[in-house]
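Dear colleague,

As promised, here are the two records you asked about, laid out in our usual form so they can be pasted straight into your sheet.

NAME FIELD: protein one
SEQUENCE, THEN STRUCTURE:
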Amino acid sequence: MKRAAPVTLAALLLAASGCASPSVIRRLPDPTITPPRPRISRAPVATPRPPPRPPPSTPLAGKVIVVDAGHGGHDPGALGVGPVPEETVNLGVALKLIPFLEQRGAQVIATRTGDRFVALDGRARMAEEARADLFVSIHADACPRSSVSGATIYVARGAGGASRRAAGSIAAALESSGIACRGVRKAGFRVLVGHSRPAVLIECGYLTNYHEARALGTSAYQARLAEAIAEGITDHFGP
């Protein structure tokens, strides 16, 4: 007959409390111990690249434009009723037109940049030798009737399509900028017929009109004219 195993005090206490034996006790997690966080594998985030900068707008790139400030030196041009003679108005508009065209990518050749005289045939020869895509002559007009005002665009009487289209674009740009324009006319000016290149002559206004003469003598109005002319030239060469 086998001797019964001795009953320990711990076993009696567990039996009395209704608990299972130590071999079947489930261990609960210790609330004081923070379990390790699961390691999450994340895909690398690509850093977005800034959008490429658009190229500078150069719609006149590759174009050669001769800008001719009419008169100069011993030839003051029309005097009108204002304090500023035509030669000074022409040069002021031309010098403001040049950077507007260069900013758009054009190669600009000026017949004069100061108060000096250049013969008409010399101006025409510059356009021929440079094989200009456009010759632009800047002038101011005069009329016995002081009420006459507004800009006028001239082309040669036998002008080709390029000259006529350029004149039309410049006239439209002047009108769009709020500058009165009397339209496109034909004439036999030497700077228009003395070479074979496309050409326009712009009479920017009338120095014999009191209000227009005052405006033409100001730098602000000259800049306004120059910008409108540049817009017209750009429209002419645009797509």
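NAME FIELD: protein two
SEQUENCE, THEN STRUCTURE:
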Amino acid sequence: MSTARPVSFAVVGADHLHLFELVDRLVAAGAIASAHAPLGDLTQLYADWRAESIETSVEAILDDPDVDLVVLAGVPKDRAELAIAALRRGKRVLSAKPGVTTPAQLGAIREELAGRAGRPWTVLFTERFENRAIGAAIDLARSGALGEIVHVIGGGPHRLGAEGRPEWFWDHEATGGILVDIGSHQADQLLAIAFDGGASAVVGEVRTSSVGNVACGEHPGMQDIGSMTLVANGVVGDHRVDFLTPDGLDSWGDVRLQIVGTRGTAEARANVDPAGEAGAEHLIVVDREGTRRVDVSEHDVDWAPRFLADLRDDGERLMSQAHVLEVCDLTLRAQEAAVPWGT
């Protein structure tokens, strides 16, 4: 794409609040919110927020040569088809997670990407790229300060918030299942640690997985808990995700990441500190020198500038296309192999 003007993007699908996070960062980094299609329950909220964005049709967006990037945050099951349509028209795609919900969708995305340079299709895993504590913990692991990394424990507890959920949230086919949806964050973090962000071949293995509905009997088709054990480049990852966060917690969830190395450990508490420290984004490191809290307030949340730079020169500064594809593949395999919870 041309480097002579700012990146212009259009929104197709507005059903998840991650949309506002993605767009806010893109605009702050210099991109232009040029258009949006009236798809999704949050369309009017988005239109009111971004008054400069023109409402138009999906086809008009795809045919517009001035639209460089299509941003997707619709119902998860619809994102892959829209991504493929955009890629076929020469657009780049930025999707909220999950980018795909079935193996067939991932296969179609792979076919569309074959032979293309850079990372035309990006799924942004916001737990890593938006939370300073998690980002700093992964950087610390990559630096070698913790020694050889041997084990990762990732947790993604969420509050159910049933009264505010759209109908598609309760539909397993719409979300792809709890491991495909929430678990994509944990798979992303494991692969980012195990392969240090620089490997062209990124491969993971599913050892075990399980899913269940343990506290949401009025919606028997949805999954409110899931776990998976993954292995990547010699690093074992144990992960649990759920919608069981109690209402008494002053946060939407209690996301955490623990990294165990041969010379130290790091634990990130993304949302809250159970020991009582105020605020969010906590990082605690234990090594030969002792135990300490690490101030992550200066850790850069800089995914958007790197992403826009990648669009301009087919780079992979943010992450590789192989990484994005393997995160999706891992979680799909874990979901498909999952046994019922408690068996």
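A couple of things worth noting about protein two: The domain at 127-300+334-340 is CATH 3.30.360.10 (Dihydrodipicolinate Reductase; domain 2). The longest helix spans residues 321-337.

Best,
R.
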